[in-house]
Amino acid sequence: MTTTGHEPDAMPPVLACRAVRKEFNGTVVLDDFALEVAEHEVVVLIGASGSGKSTLLRCVNLLEPISDGAIHLDGEHITDPRVDPDDVRRRIGMVFQSYNLFPHMTVLDNITLAPERVHGRSRASARTHATELLERVGLGEKAGEYPDRLSGGQQQRVAIVRALINSPRLLLLDEVTSALDPELVGEVLSLIHSLREEGMTMLLATHEMGFARQVADRVCFLDKGRVLEQGPPEQVLFEPEQHRTRQFLQRIIDAGRL
Amino acid sequence: MTTTVTGPGGEPLPPGPYRPSQLQRERESYRRRQSVRSVLLAAVSTGVVGLVLILGIVGSPGWERVKETFFDLEVGLDALPAVLTGLWLNVRLLVFCAMGALVLGLLVAIMRTLRGPVFFPLRALATSYTYGFRGAPLIIVLYLMTFGVPGLRLGGTPSVLVLGGIALVITYGAYLAEVFRAGIESVHPSQIAAARSLGLTYRQTMRHVVLPQAIRRVTPPLLNDMVALQKDVGLISLAGPIDAIRAAQIATAQSYNFTPYLVAGVLFVLMAIPLVAVTDWVTMRAARRQSAEGAR
What we know:
Structural class of chain A: alpha/beta
Strand content of chain A: 15-25%
CATH architecture of the domain at 87-239 in chain B: Orthogonal Bundle
Distance between the termini of chain A: 25 Å
Subcellular location (chain A): Cell membrane
Largest sheet of chain B: none
Membrane topology (chain A): Peripheral membrane protein
Oligomer: heterodimer
CATH topology of the largest domain in chain A: Rossmann fold
GO cellular component, one term (chain A): plasma membrane
CATH topology of the domain at 87-239 in chain B: MetI-like fold
Family (chain A): Belongs to the ABC transporter superfamily.
Largest interface: A-B, 26 and 20 residues
Pfam families (chain A): ABC_tran (PF00005)
Shape of chain B: flat
Helix content of chain B: over 70%
Number of helices of chain A: 9
């Protein structure tokens, strides 16, 4: 499961970040950052607030320009200025911490907006597909509701469906359970779990260490804009080699979250 | 071991359906007494102020003459048909100017939000327009358009009515542009990030995500500007077209009595009432929706 794809004949990794640097007004957030995500792999980013997890996800989706380095998607250099960012985003799905559903549209319209406007699908086929996916996540009867009538967990499941319907090559999940009440976290996590079973390639940032352990093929601990330590979850979470990783995990254990 | 249910005062409560406790009943009766007192106080003070005002005006030394020149029922009724005919012009002008100003305002607001060096000229044009025309007095713009432009003696110059309408549209367009821009900027950046992450282009994001939310949010202030525009449409009389105010002026010149102005004024107020009521209703609804969002 840890194919790095360096052999010339192998398929290129779905995502490859090479020496990525990101600065905000002189503050370095990502520094000589390297990461690869292979097809069907689930990579979980952990690390303290400000370690660069969210920034990395936003850079991969070209919502933020990078300051140096390169990001490749399926072997294509997507941080090349000649590349159309809209075309890249069509192939990547993203789910945000605060759901970001469109409040003026029904659940169904939220989901069918991109298939209809971006992917040129017919209204009928987009609606059928959306209804099907909603039913699969247990929200079939919510199709006509507006987002503010839904609980946080339901909204987040809709947001995941909204990203999934476009069959992305890569799904980015940015602390998708951090805004949820504890009793609603489970429904979102089990959905992500089932996506993993279906082979969706995912890169996610989370504070849920228990979940990271269940879902990750590989856990990366980010510190000061770099991957300080990475490996299988059991190793990184329970036998970390780096002092800072141990420190971070100790704080999480003290807070009762592992 | 059985626990007895007790009220807030420690007294045992009888079993059965909920009944307000003694404490709650006292609280409610105190509130009732208080509100009766405040209503009475408000009514009395309003009555006293009203009476003083009426006595002050009616008892003034010049009241008889003012009554004759401003409140002559006969002169008012004589002028009514002409003023009403003029008012129809105001109504038509209002509809066209409102539509023109809304479209212009929205376009300018969108131009001001465009990013990137390619759009610098458009952005600069839009910005200087809103700076200039929000400061320019409407009367001056009106004079420039209705007297200045025909003075150029160009072929195909439209009528004074159209020129006056254009003056209203460009003046109000500048205000409305700022209202629209405030609405556009009030849409949280995370909404734009979500739309772009789905692959929508900047245009599609504006069209399907930003503008629908922005316009909904600024509808109350937009309607308020429409009420203001409704009054200012009467300024067209300065340029010559016979609207309600011009008709009143003509009637005044014939009768040496100012009542026709009062008639026109009352008609303007009557015309504004429905729009004002709609504005209040929309504002209230928006406030309720906002507080519902906040409570979530």
